[in-house]
Amino acid sequence: MTTHHFLDLDDLKPDMLKKLLVVAADIKKNPANYTDKIKGKSVALIFEKPSTRTRVSFEVGVRQLGGNVITLLRNDLQLGRGETVADTARVISRYIDMVMIRCYEHETLVEMAECGTIPVINGLSNFSHPCQIMADLLTYQEHRGDIAGKKVAWVGDCNNVLTSWMQASGLFKFKMHIASPGKLCPPADVMEEVRALGADITLSENADEAVKNADLVVTDTWVSMGETNKEMRMKLLRDYTVNDALMKKAKPDALFMHCLPAHRDEEVSASVIDGPQSVVWDEAENRLHVQKAIMLYCFGLL
Ligand code: CP
Ligand code: NVA
Question: Which of 15, 136, 140, 265 has the highest count of CB atoms within 10 angstroms of its CB?
């Protein structure tokens, strides 16, 4: 039984990512077939930042698979008083069978994986959010079928959620057009990395161009957790709200996605997020199903 980490989408081969979506769909349809898959296993969830979806869906998901779950906020741990990540990893590996971490520095995840002896799942870092994009891909597939060859428009801030979307572009073979103020566009090394994975990405400052003929329009908060330059971001992004006028420029059957939490009338109008093209509640639900599949993969059970 080979265990695995789930730190970023590009750690996995496209075939395995697709298999995870197939398993997630089956878990969603037949949850009773999976109730004792991780019986006797203990999973720790460590949060350096707040969370609603990730915390609740992982806690419920572990229990639904028959495992035990322990949730630890940063200040519950000696990590909050300066114990190193490496020592924390070594110690919890003696008690726990798997850990999911939401952290600031991506390096924390990597160090946890390197210094511990148990699988590590990325529950969001400043760099990426792979569990979210797996849920989004499952959601797209449920509503519109295969995403290969489709056009995804990202409008707004370029953040951790976008990194995982960009990695998915190459792995799942869809096009992306990102519209963002030049000052906030993804770093050159990240662009190089995702293009090496085969990502087909156009970058511009023009939201109208980005959504033209898009099959899916995606946005996220303008101020991610840990960002300090709120005023500057709000000013730079004020013309990047996904509203009805912008959605009209996408394909008539385009979907709208947002990982949540949302800020109505900042990055998205209430009419769009609460409107008929929005699939945000399905995305949130699918976190549960897809993460159950991810945990089975990490335990070497797929
Ligand atoms: N989308 C997402 O990860 O939400 P939470 O911050 O509530 O976990
Ligand atoms: N980009 C957001 C995602 C929240 C789930 C953040 O990092 O705050």
Answer: 136
Q: Are 201 and 185 in contact (CB under 8 A)?
A: no
Nearest ligand (C-alpha, residue 283):
1
Give the up-direction half-sphere exposure of residue 28: CA atoms within 13 A in the CB hemisphere: 19
> Against a cut of 0.90, is the pTM above it?
yes
Q: How far apart are CA 251 and CA 237, in angstroms?
A: 23
* C-alpha–C-alpha distance, residues 118 and 168, integer Å: 25
Question: What is the pLDDT, as a whole number, of residue 77?
Answer: 94
* pLDDT tens track for 104-132: 999 999 999 999 999 999 999 999 999 99
The active-site residue, picked from 259, 289, 291, 298, is: 259
Cα of 94 to ligand 2 centre, how many Å? 31
Provide the 10 A C-beta neighbour count for residue 189.
8
Q: Is 132 in the pocket of ligand 1 (CB under 6 A)?
A: yes
Question: Can you list the alpha helix ranges (DSSP code H) found in 182-279?
Answer: 188-196, 207-211, 230-237, 244-247, 270-273
Nearest alpha carbon to residue 154 among 178, 130, 127, 186: 178
Atom of ligand 1 nearest to the CA of 284: 1
Check residue 144 and give its pLDDT: 98
pLDDT for residue 74 is more than 90: no
Whether the CB-CB separation of 122 and 129 falls below 8 Å is answered with yes
CA neighbours closer than 13 Å in the CB half-sphere of residue 298:
26
Q: Phi/psi class of residue 6: alpha, beta or left (left: φ > 0; alpha: ψ in -120 to 50)? A: beta
Choose among 193, 211, 109: nearest CA to 152.
Answer: 211
Integer Cα distance of 115 and 117 in angstroms: 7
The CA distance from 220 to 235, in Å, is 16
Indicate whether 270 pLDDT > 90: yes
